[in-house]
Amino acid sequence: MNRLFAEPDIRAEHRPDGTVVLRSNTPLGTYEPSLGHLLRRWSRAYPDRNFLAERPAGDATRPWRAVTYGEADRLATSLAQALLDHSLGPDRPLVLLSGNTVNHGLLMLAGYLASVPVVPVSPAYSLLATDFTRLAAMVDLVRPGLVYVEETRPFAHALDALGLLEGECIGSTELCTGDGAAGIPFRDLASTGATPAVEDAFARVDENTIAKILFTSGSTGHPKGVITTQRMLCSNQQAMAQVWPFLAETPPVLCDWLPWSHTFGGSHNFNLVLWNRGTLYIDGGRPSPAQIGTTLVNLADVRPTISFNVPAGFGALLPHLEADEDLARRYFDRLQLIFYASAALPPDLWSRLEALAVKTVGHPVAMTSSWGATETAPAVTNAHFPLDRAGVIGVPLPGMKVKLVPAGHKQEVRVAGVGVTPGYLNRPDLTEAAFDEEGFYRIGDAMRLVDRDVPNRGLVFDGRIAEDFKLQTGTWVNVGMLRTELLAALSPLLSDLVVAGHDKDRIGLLVWLAPDILDTPAVRSELAERLRTHNAAHVGSASSIANFIVLEQPPSIDRGEITDKGYINQRAVLASRAFAVEALFDNDSGPSVVQIT
Predict the structure, then answer these.
(1) How far apart are CA 244 and CA 442, in angstroms?
(2) Given CA atoms 443, 444, 447, 453 in this order, what sign does their dihedral have?
(3) What local confidence, expressed as pLDDT, does residue 521 receive?
(4) How does DSSP classify residue 305?
(5) The pTM is what?
(6) What's the angle, vertex CA 509, arms to CA 506 and CA 512, rounded to 5?
(7) What is the distance between the alpha carbons of residues 87 and 94, in angstroms, rounded to a whole number?
(8) Can you tell me the distance from the alpha carbon of 70 to that of 139, in angstroms, rounded to the nearest whole number?
(9) pLDDT, tens digit, for every residue of 543-567?
(10) Contact 596, 547 (CB under 8 A)
(11) How far apart are CA 186 and CA 103, in angstroms?
């Protein structure tokens, strides 16, 4: 087997006030000034190698449509010319409202060639919202020259709210559609004849060029535009290549659904494939009951070399792998690495994946994780060493520094280095508040060293500072850790939960049942029994659950209860569901609240 990981070499600076600064002793190597330079390099070296592939309309019964590196370069160059012809540039970005497609990928690449920032926006703001105020605010902030959607009909309400169907959007914004049903047909842009103007624009692209504006709300607040430079994206991939040397020997093959509007799918995975001359098969499925079937067909067909997912994705996939020996064999056949992020992988999923790999291919497949943010493009740390359990999120990558600052009962983590954003678009106030006096970005998370004296053993994620709260007794509740434990204990009955109890004498839960689980007395009884088992193993007010209430109304993106990444915004839910929180702590709340103790 190829050597997967480079040995970590981390030094720690311990300051008198308890602050710890961690950095890699391995210097960051030289790297290309932009992703466009990578595209040009691989189009010359591997013109016939497949780069991007999709099944039309995400239909798993249809053959893959593949675009080679040579074709991607040619099409992106034509599209870059079209962007310039329509007066796009550093101050007139390209907004991409729809999800992952080959056309979407080509437009991103075109932006990199033409020095046009691309702004991929989560489709949820167009498809799940009802008043479109957040979407309009994002468009108003970036003032795009062009907005793209793959299919017109699903986005018609959002486009109409923006005035695009009537040509009345902010400024002189134009609409482009993949199906040609409105605005400029994509095929017209893709057939534009390139002129020297593209090369002139590309010659001006350097490390400081803005590549993307990515919207993030984190766990609190309204979406804000994160300025993402070519330096951030390219230095991140160079660091990853140094700690994952196997990528130089085996170009990665991915079958991936993670959205490009989020930094995990769009900055980490898409760029990892491009940086290492690999192939990305766009999975039209999702880890949901309605769409997991498409993912299963695609995985069996592609046989990926790396499997990227969130823990819930692995949770949805695993029962099908356990039930289908042939599917498991094809999934594990050439798999080198299982990578989870966004949350800790529950112990039961870890052990089941490991056992299934051993049963199927005769050896475990390495499992690892990373940590970062939209503001860090995204990876700050990486666990490039063997792990036997979830929770460790690795050590700082070359070129990055991590500072642990005492903050009450925890250590707040802050970040500096070449991968950190210069700030938020048109929000100098947010930018100033985001950095401390030493220039470290305040990310809002907490961490701790596995071993204070051996920094190479890595860091453990310790929740978000803003989410933790105190009970009336003064006891701190670690919301992040508790929530992860509870989701694992209650799987697969729940889709999500929120922990409540600030300034109360006990902890209660707001829960949403999984889409295929009906709210019946038997289900509530099963949840209560599992929580009693949890309480027996977690004695103490900081982790013992007193009661829960099942929420019928799903989380709302309009109210900010879902972040741009599709995660639950704990603080927003507690604020907007104040009636449910009150019921949890009302001794006469009635049958709507299920008591555990």
Answers:
(1) 27
(2) positive
(3) 93
(4) S
(5) 0.89
(6) 175
(7) 11
(8) 33
(9) 999 999 999 998 887 788 876 556 7
(10) yes
(11) 8
Q: Which domains does the chain have, with CATH numbers?
A: 10-28+390-464 (2.30.38.10), 69-205 (3.40.50.980), 469-595 (3.30.300.30)
State the pLDDT at residue 220: 45
Closest by CA to 487, choosing from 279, 344, 276, is: 344
Query: Which residue in this structure is represented by tokens 């038997």?
Result: 522
Tokens found for residue 97: 């409202």
DSSP per residue, 185-234: EHHHHHTPPP-HHHHHHHHT--TTSEEEEEEE-TTSSS-EEEEEEHHHHH
Residue in this structure with the two tokens 């498409």, named with its chain if needed: 294
State the Cα angle at 359 between 304 and 530, rounded to 5°.
95
DSSP letters for 327-393: HHHHHHTT--EEEE-SSPPPHHHHHHHHHHHHHHHSSPPEEEEEEE-GGGSSEEEE--S--SSS-EE
98-to-11, 257, 259 alpha-carbon distances in Å: 43, 13, 10
Cα three-residue angle 557-559-561, rounded to 5 degrees? 60
User: Tokens 């009955």 label which residue?
Assistant: 493
Question: Phi first, then psi: what are they for 549, rounded to 5°?
Answer: -135, 135
Strand partners for 215: 225
d(CA 87, CA 159): 21
* Distance separating alpha carbons of residues 334 and 252, to the nearest angstrom: 11
Identity at 93, one-letter amino acid code: P
Stretches in the chain below the pLDDT threshold 70:
1-2, 167-171, 217-222, 563-566, 588-591
Burial string for 33-53 (b: 16+ CB within 10 Å, else e) reads: bbbbbbbbebbeeeeebbbbb
b/e map of 357-373 (b: 16 or more CB within 10 Å)? Answer: beebbeebbbbbbbbbb
Strands laid side by side in the 507-513 sheet: 494-500, 507-513, 545-550, 593-595
Other C-beta atoms lying within 10 Å of the C-beta of residue 568: 18
Give dist(CA 393, CA 406) in Å, integer.
19
Token pair listed for 532? 């009693």
591 secondary structure, DSSP code: G
Structure tokens at 487: 């989701």
Tokens of residue 484, six digits: 């992860």
Vertex 217 angle, CA 424 and 477, to 5°: 125
Measured between alpha carbons, how far is 33 from 35 in angstroms, rounded to an integer? 7
Helix (H, G, I), strand (E, B) or coil at 250: coil
pLDDT recorded at residue 472: 82
Token duo for residue 558: 């309009």
Is residue 153 within 8 A of residue 166, CB to CB? The reply is no
Specify the 3-state DSSP secondary structure of 78: helix
Give the tens place of pLDDT for each residue, 346-392.
888 899 999 999 999 999 999 999 999 999 999 999 999 999 888 89
Which pLDDT does position 219 carry in this prediction? 44
Strand 253-256 vs strand 279-282: parallel, antiparallel, or unpaired?
parallel
Q: Is residue 303 within 8 Å of 331, Cβ to Cβ?
A: yes
